[in-house]
Design brief:
By secondary structure, this protein is α+β, with helices and mostly antiparallel strands. The protein is built from 13 helices and 25 strands.
Length: about 425
């Protein structure tokens, strides 16, 4: 990170909001975009950029040479996905009008309105469809700065004042042109864009590192959980065991929702949303809802002791977590209380069994794995529980490294948001 970026980070916590100030500080002025420095100008999108919607897709009318094009989904924040691009027939006029140039800004016209990225020409030739606005600077406005401004507008809800709402929101070109934007001096535009790019580069490097660590973990799981690779000091046999012989399988249930006495008690009650909300993290320590003792007694839910494996087995299949406190679940779960296997090892092993579990599914209205099917579900594992624990420890250490990196990334992303708030309003000056 540059010295400027570090200075912004240190300063951002101490700055009061100029927009909310009862008086305008010296050196600043009140404008339609809020309080900004005196030497900043105000313009509109249309006065700083040419804005053009892309090619209309019409299978009956489109003729000419087939060419690859970008749609709304291809444009993410600061990223353009060029994998598996579709094609559309284009006339010579279309080729001239809709061909992308390096440095073009592409902005989503619908869906997540305003989502934007810069086309850096990873392909020699590419075009874009009508779901996207293409922006090209008229007077040299910094494109990276413009993408940052678009991101801030999206976060602050600015676009809601300009969209046309039908079934989904759309940002018409004529309204997009009228949105006011602050215009810092050219040198300051470059400095702001450079500082934010430094943070983006750090985020990208963290993303690559996290992805690499996850790949290494997956390879290690494949080796250790199958016995392909043994940890030093272990030579004992592995065995095939039925899941019902190494864990008690407990079910879930839902108390009557019409009886308020059954709800909002002291017993956590887990739904699949609680598990998917963990986003792969191992431990479940809280749930969104809870039931009472009466709700537990008057339903098929069972109290699951801490150190068990909570596993989805209806609709969403095979998502797992280890509960750190007593919980109940709804009927979309079959929960495993280990009896002769290490809990952490069994957790990791079950996370590799999703495809096999899906093959067991039955049901006409939704997929489901039954208790009897799980009881005879075969697993291959070490006889020695100490080897199970040693394997789980290796994988847990890898999880800890990944979690630390994810926390660092989250802090860096928060820092970028604070920096954008400071730099894009002129509260902190780099020049």
């Amino acid at each position: 990170m540059t010295d400027e970026a570090m200075e912004v980070r240190d300063a951002s916590a101490g700055y009061a909001s100029l927009v909310d100030s009862p008086t305008v500080p010296e050196g600043y002025k009140q404008t339609e975009v809020g309080v900004i420095p005196q030497d900043w100008d105000i313009a509109t999108v249309g006065s700083e950029f040419t804005v053009q919607l892309g090619k209309m897709l019409d299978s009956e009318r489109n003729v000419g040479e087939s060419k690859p094009y970008l749609g709304n989904r291809a444009v993410q924040w600061d990223l353009i996905d060029i994998s598996d691009l579709p094609t559309v027939p284009m006339t010579q006029s279309d080729l001239k009008k809709f061909r992308l140039k390096k440095g073009d800004i592409l902005v989503c016209e619908g869906g997540e309105v305003g989502r934007a990225a810069i086309w850096n020409a990873p392909l020699n030739e590419c075009y874009y469809q009508k779901a996207l606005h293409r922006l090209r600077p008229i007077k040299g406005f910094n494109s990276k700065l413009m993408v940052a401004i678009l991101r801030r507008w999206a976060d602050k809800g600015v676009f809601k004042n300009y969209v046309t709402q039908t079934s989904i929101a759309h940002l018409p070109r004529d309204k997009f042109l009228t949105i006011p934007i602050p215009v810092p001096p050219k040198e300051e535009q470059c400095a702001i864009a450079s500082t934010l790019s430094d943070v983006d580069a750090l985020l990208e490097s963290l993303d690559r590192l996290i992805a690499k660590k996850r790949d290494i973990k997956q390879a290690t799981m494949q080796q250790l959980l199958t016995g392909e690779v043994r940890l030093p000091g272990f030579e004992g046999e592995w065995e095939k065991r039925k899941l019902g012989t190494i864990a008690v399988i407990r079910s879930g249930g839902t108390p009557s929702t019409s009886n308020d006495e059954f709800w909002n008690g002291d017993i956590p009650w887990c739904t699949p949303t609680d598990i998917t909300g963990l986003q792969g993290r191992k431990y479940l320590s809280a749930t969104n809802r809870s039931i009472s003792d009466a709700g537990l007694k008057m339903s098929s839910a069972e109290l699951i002791p801490p150190g068990s494996i909570i596993m989805t087995t209806r609709a969403t299949i095979g998502e797992c977590a280890i509960n750190t406190l007593p919980v109940t679940t709804n009927q979309g779960f079959k929960n495993l209380e280990p009896t002769s296997a290490d809990c952490e090892y069994l957790y990791y092993l079950m996370t590799t069994q999703k495809q096999r579990l899906l093959q067991l599914c039955a049901g006409s209205t939704f997929l489901e794995v039954g208790k009897k099917q799980l009881e005879i579900f075969d697993l291959y594992l070490p006889e020695d529980v100490e080897e199970q624990r040693a394997i789980a420890t290796v994988l847990s250490d890898m999880d800890a490294v990944i979690e630390t990196l994810e926390q660092r990334r989250a802090k860096t992303a928060s820092l970028k948001q604070a920096m954008m708030q400071e730099l894009l309003t002129g509260r902190t000056r780099l020049i």
